[in-house]
Description:
Shape: globular
Distance between the termini: 26 Å
Structural class: alpha/beta
CATH topology: Uracil-DNA Glycosylase, subunit E
Largest sheet: 6 strands, mixed
Bound molecules: iron/sulfur cluster
Number of domains: 1
Strand content: 5-15%
Helix content: 40-55%
Mean pLDDT: 85
Number of helices: 10
Number of strands: 6
CATH architecture: 3-Layer(aba) Sandwich
Amino acid sequence: xxRETIRQLRLxxxxxxxMGVDYLPRGESRDRSxxxxxxxxxxxxxxxxxxxxxxxxxxxxxxxxxxxxAEMGECKRCPLWKERKTLVFGEGNPWARLMFVGEAxxxxxxxxxxxxxxxxxxxxxxxLQTIGLSRxxxxxANILKCRPPGNRTPQPQEIEQCFPFLLKQIQxxxxxxxxxxxxxxxQTLLGQKVAITRLRGxxxxxxxxxxxxxxxxxxxxxxxxxxxxxxMQDFLKLKEKLEGSE
Length: 246
Ligand code: SF4
């Protein structure tokens, strides 16, 4: 437990350092702080970020989600199946309140069959950890389940074939918030062209009582580290939203 806490703290500090923060002000020691007033002491603890645990059985199964996977099978609905090593369906908490949607698997994801496991995935994991979440707390998927050659941008006909399955995944998971990572995810879910830089950090009412939230794709942040500070602010907003919606 202590080792895990230290590991998370180290990741958080690494992220801050990458964002250009090289000094942290020293806080007051807890022992020297004035005693809390009675009203402070009676304050309720912050609600957990986690979903209603009653919904989670021991195996964390979601039959509706499994049915979507079964329906996809060894999908050949668009030409991307020809070059894929693995179909990357998605992973995480099948009852997650927070779902992330990216663009498409990259090389590492194609090899491992898991979303966001390369360098961009490592950064996403770091951001999650800074708001007290792990990958297992959320659900992570992509617009496309197969890697486009050379990581090129998905083509409209590929999205047209694959997107209905993402919609079915969303209907099965029933998240409160979907965080779109990057322009392709945002444009596909919103059904219109959007500028991430203009709409990021906002909650947008969507269908099925779900709100969309837009932020940068972690791969973009690797190329533009100056935006990590803004991305961190976005993740803090996500945390606030989840805490407030319990
Ligand atoms: S990208 Fe989607 S639609 Fe195309 S083959 Fe893969 S799973 Fe099927």
